[in-house]
Specification:
7-stranded mixed β-sheet
Length: 195
């Protein structure tokens, strides 16, 4: 079994010294470098690179610069996806975003975890567990989403949260560790003034 196959099964794998994974990361980081150097008004060029880099994209999306990922091919974004500046995705496993997901600046999605055992860690062994974000999710600024987390549909994650476990649909959640504060209700429609 290759190290890449082990990573997709959630097993300890050699991320630091495996030639195939190193080459794939270098390719993705080169693509990110090119992407981040493009003029922001070059929307066509930016879209072209993201479509080449990511595993799956919908028709409409916007990934603000700078953007950094490990592999790219493990990231799937839905329709009307938006992620603001300074996002980091360590995609040793799948990171999947549904439709209408909005992510604020300085957010990280980390599928990678290192071995707790010092000898395994020093050998370069790590694990990767997928992250899934549902439809109609808003993630506030400075949020960290850790390995193996699922965030349900129609949920809001408050700024600065560290999401260590699954968050259900239809809730406002925040904190370190992130926890459900309350359900989102019809009363939230009137929270902000309209005309």
């Amino acid at each position: 079994m290759t190290e890449k196959e082990k990573s997709h099964l959630g097993l300890l794998y050699d991320a630091n010294y495996d030639k195939e994974l190193i080459e794939e990361r270098l390719y993705a980081k080169g693509m990110c470098y090119e992407y981040n150097r493009l003029h922001p008004a070059n929307t066509e060029g930016r879209e072209e690179i993201i479509r080449k880099l990511l595993g799956s994209t919908a028709e409409r999306f916007l990934v603000e610069q700078p953007f950094v990922c490990d592999y790219g091919y493990n990231i799937e974004i839905g329709e009307n996806f938006y992620i603001n500046h300074n996002s980091v995705m360590l995609d040793g496993a799948k990171i999947t975003f549904g439709d209408n997901v909005f992510v604020a600046p300085n957010c990280g999605f980390y599928t990678a975890g290192h071995a707790l055992d010092v000898e395994q860690r020093n050998q370069g062994l790590e694990v990767a567990f997928p992250i899934a974000v549902g439809n109609n999710v808003w993630i506030g600024g400075g949020v960290s989403v850790l390995p193996g987390v699922t965030i349900g549909d129609n949920t809001v994650i408050g700024a600065g949260s560290v999401v260590t476990k699954d968050i259900p649909s239809g809730v406002l959640a925040a904190g370190n560790p992130c926890r459900v504060i309350r359900e989102i209700t019809e009363a939230d429609r009137d929270k902000y003034r309209r005309e």
